[in-house]
Amino acid sequence: MKKNILLSLAFLLVFSTMCEAQRLRARWKAYRYEWSFGIGASNFLGDLGGANAIGTNGFKDLELSLTRPALTVGMRYKLSPALSIHSHLTYGHVKGDDKLTKEFFRSTRGLNFKSNIYEFNVNFEAALLSQQEGGIYRLRGVRRSNSFEGSLYGFVGIGVFHFNPKGEFNDKWYNLQPLGTEGQGISPAREKYKRTQICIPFGIGGRYFFNRRWGVGFEFGLRKTFTDYIDDVSKTYYDPLAINQANGPVAAYFSNPNPNAESTTVGQQRGDPRDKDAYMFAIISLHYKIRTGRTNFPIF
């Protein structure tokens, strides 16, 4: 008798586990597509401004006062309960200004820039931690717990972004790339940089769905780039007289606002081409799942 009871309990346990697994499997397949809409902040790591130190790299060089807004819209597609593809179209704004640092050489350089960032990417997301609760049945006389879904994930992908650095002079902003501020287009050894580039997004995020369709999320991502010219600064100072002759006095000014300083003479270091520029987004988002299939379970 006891043996039969134990076998029955074991059967019920296995059967309920299989049903629960089937139920969750059916649910995620019915809601594989998901819109996301986000607002947040953008910032920049490059040659201009930053920490009060020489050659400071990484987050030590982050200037929080130059944090600017960002907007994003995206579409997620679930490959499995733990893996997704998420594509974004994101707008951000980045700035840098040497007057914000007390480091002597940067402050003497006296450069500034701002740029809009337009990015399109495709990211692969992997769940690091996830939890899902709540039944999909709605039976008369049976109280049902509220459905929710939470997850913590990491992501990495590939993207393309467009930037256009501008500098301020006499209360007017000028596009810097056409001015050849480091001799681009003047010296055969220095070609003009492209303003559309490839980036590698990576980071971490989390989402919480308080019902089957609607949820909120947070994501922080850094963008590794392969250009050092988001801020128009990379190599050494070029002859301002040659720049003036080729592109005019405004270009000569932006090439070197302090030409009489000992640290800004021709051939001296203007930027660090070994350390590529980077930018980042921190986004708070709203999510909406699209039902595209049947679960084969009653959801009335």
What's the order of the H and E elements? HEEEHEEEEEEHHE
* Overall number of strands: 10
CATH class: Mainly Beta
**C-alpha end-to-end distance:** 41 Å
CATH topology: the name is: Porin
Largest sheet: 8 strands, antiparallel, barrel
- Work out the strand percent: 35-45%
Helical stretch count? 4
Can you characterise this structure?
- There is one protein chain.
- The chain has 4 helices and 10 strands; from the N terminus they run H-E-E-E-H-E-E-E-E-E-E-H-H-E.
- The model is unreliable at 5-24 and 136-145 (pLDDT under 50).
- Helices cover 17% and strands 41% of the residues.
- 31% of the residues are buried.
- It has an 8-stranded antiparallel β-barrel with strand order 1-2-3-4-5-8-9-10. A two-stranded antiparallel ribbon has the order 6-7.
- Strand 8 and strand 9 (214-225) form a beta hairpin.
- It has a single domain, classed as Porin.
- With 300 residues, the protein is α+β, with helices and mostly antiparallel strands.
